[in-house]
Amino acid sequence: MQLIDGKKISIQIQEQIALEVKQMLLAGKKQPHLAAVLVGNDGGSETYVANKIKTCEKVGFKSTLIRHPEYVTEEKLLQTVIDLNNNNDVDGFIVQLPLPRHINEQKVLETILPSKDVDGFHPINVGRMVLNLPCYVSATPYGIVQLLEKYNIQTSGKNCVVIGRSHIVGSPMSILMAKNTSLGNCTVTLCHSKTENLINHTKQADIIICALGSPEFLKADMVKEGVVVIDVGTTRVESTSAKNGFVLKGDVKFDEVAPKCSFITPVPGGVGPMTIASLLKNTLLAAKKEIYS
Question: What pTM value is reported for the model?
Answer without folding.
Answer: 0.92
